[in-house]
Design a protein that fits this description.
Layout: H1 14-22, H2 26-48, H3 51-67, H4 78-92, H5 104-113, H6 129-146, H7 150-161, H8 166-173, H9 177-198, H10 210-219, H11 238-241, H12 252-256, H13 258-262, H14 273-280, H15 283-288
Helix pairs in contact: 1-2, 2-3, 3-4, 3-14, 4-8, 6-10, 7-9, 8-9
């Protein structure tokens, strides 16, 4: 279920859940968190490039949602209100470690320095070799996203990966539709330029091959075979659950580059309900929602 679906699996709308939560129904509040936590986490992960940092960011965002829920007046859809909190937070949060000194030029040089090494025999590996190569691919795609400025990164995540239309995307970001499309086009162009020059998944004959880089990244400690961060062999992909109505224009970029990002796993985060109960049990929160 996408973040912009109006109902839960039980048929309750966001508005009904908000009404129940503000009235003191803890189950409504928990269902609201459960409905949106995975989508928030997947946005956060692609903004910061690290699963652990993404969990911290997700909890910060959900804490804001919970503590500001009583200010939601229903003038807009809840999804718009919530995802404005999400976008404002990820655009203005403290810079994460992987964002420092990250440009396409610097990233390209780092890739060039990474040695091309054949993987050892599969019997010598603790996990399937294909899964390790998938880890390399997703790690590299995450690194590319971090080379974009935050505003371009966010609009590419929303429009390029999760396929939000200019109508929804511009509403969330509070910019015009032309500005949304222009920002998305620039982000696509920068990624396309980098990938067409290097990535063998986009253009055969390019120098950078995931299978050749995997062993080198393991030797450098960037990939830990027994503790994979990105590869999920049995996970659903983004394209399976993102909105089906895509932009009708089909360019080389759309058919060769964007699918690499949409083929990434849709990650299920830790359950944040339990962590947020610590907030809801506080006296000042109970007073705010008249739970005493």
């Amino acid at each position: 279920m996408g973040p912009f679906a109006e109902t839960t699996s039980e048929g309750m709308t966001d508005a009904e859940l908000v009404t129940g939560a503000v009235a003191g129904d803890s189950l409504s509040l928990e269902n609201l968190v459960l409905k949106h936590q995975a989508w928030i986490y997947n946005v956060a992960l692609r903004m910061v490039g690290d699963p652990h940092d993404a969990e911290d960011v997700t909890q910060e965002i959900l804490s804001k949602m919970v503590t500001h829920l009583s200010t939601f007046e229903g003038r807009s859809k809840f999804r718009t209100w919530l995802y404005r909190i999400v976008t404002n937070h990820v655009l203005n949060m403290k810079k994460r470690p992987r964002e420092f000194n990250r440009t396409f030029s610097v990233y390209g040089e780092a890739i060039d320095r990474s040695p091309d090494i054949d993987l050892p025999d599969s019997k010598a590996l603790p996990v399937d070799a294909d899964l390790l190569v998938e880890e390399t691919k997703h790690l590299c795609l995450a690194g590319m996203l971090l080379c974009l400025s935050r505003d371009q990164r966010l609009v590419f995540i929303l429009g390029g990966i999760f396929c939000l239309s200019d109508a929804i995307g511009s509403e969330i970001l509070e910019i015009s539709k032309p500005a949304y499309r222009k920002r998305l086009s620039r982000a696509r162009g920068r990624l396309r330029h980098f990938m067409e020059e290097r990535c063998s998944l986009v253009r055969e004959g390019n120098s950078c091959s995931c299978s050749k880089k995997t062993a080198g990244l393991i030797s450098l400690g960037e990939i830990k075979p027994t503790k994979l961060r990105f590869a999920r062999g049995d996970a659903r992909t983004i394209k399976e659950i993102a909105p089906r109505k895509l932009i009708s224009f089909r360019s080389f970029w759309d058919t060769r580059c964007t699918p690499l990002f949409r083929d990434q796993p849709f990650y299920e985060p830790s359950d944040f309900v339990e962590a947020l109960r610590g907030i809801t049990e506080k006296t000042d929160f109970k007073d705010l929602f008249e739970l005493n």
